[in-house]
Structure formats: structure tokens, C-alpha cells
Design brief:
Blueprint lengths: L4 E11 L2 H8 L5 H8 L2 H15 L5 E11 L7
Antiparallel strand pairs: 1-2
Keywords: Methyltransferase, Transferase
Protein name: Methyltransferase type 11
GO molecular function, one term: methyltransferase activity
């Protein structure tokens, strides 16, 4: 029996500006945006402010995006 192979798939996620990046956080899809959607409006505003300060960008933003891929093989008899 072969063991599953688990590997990361990494890409660069470019955003034209902070506004485009923040829009994803308002959609509630995925772990970080899902968490953001649960916050009261005043807490979301604080999060947005902290994120903008941390990224320190008035122009394009490039972030690493990662997903995990799993490859396995089924036995011929199973």
C-alpha cells in the first residue's frame, strides 16, 4: 500500500490595491474572511485599519496563497 503524497500548491495572489484585497474579506468565503464576517462592524473597522497599516501599501499588493494537494493510489483489488 502506497502512502498518500501531500504537497503545497503555492501561487502569488496579486491585488491592485488594498481596497481590492479588503473586498475579499467582506465576502465571508474562506477562513480569514469567514472570521471577519462574524465580527461586529466596529471590530471589522479595527481589523481593516491594522491590516492596512501592516501592509503599508498605496499600490499593488502581492501575497502568497497556498492550498494543499493530496495524491493517493487505490489498490488494484480494492
Amino acid at each position: 500500500m502506497r502512502r498518500p503524497v501531500i504537497e503545497p500548491i503555492e501561487i502569488e495572489a496579486p491585488f491592485p490595491d488594498f481596497k481590492a484585497l479588503w473586498r475579499l474579506f467582506t465576502l465571508g468565503v474562506g477562513p480569514a474572511p469567514g472570521y471577519c464576517a462574524t465580527l461586529p462592524e466596529n471590530h471589522r473597522a479595527v481589523l481593516k485599519s491594522h491590516l492596512a497599516k501592516a501592509l503599508k501599501s498605496n499600490g499593488p499588493i502581492r501575497l502568497a496563497a497556498r492550498a494543499w494537494a493530496v495524491k493517493t493510489h487505490r489498490d488494484a483489488d480494492g
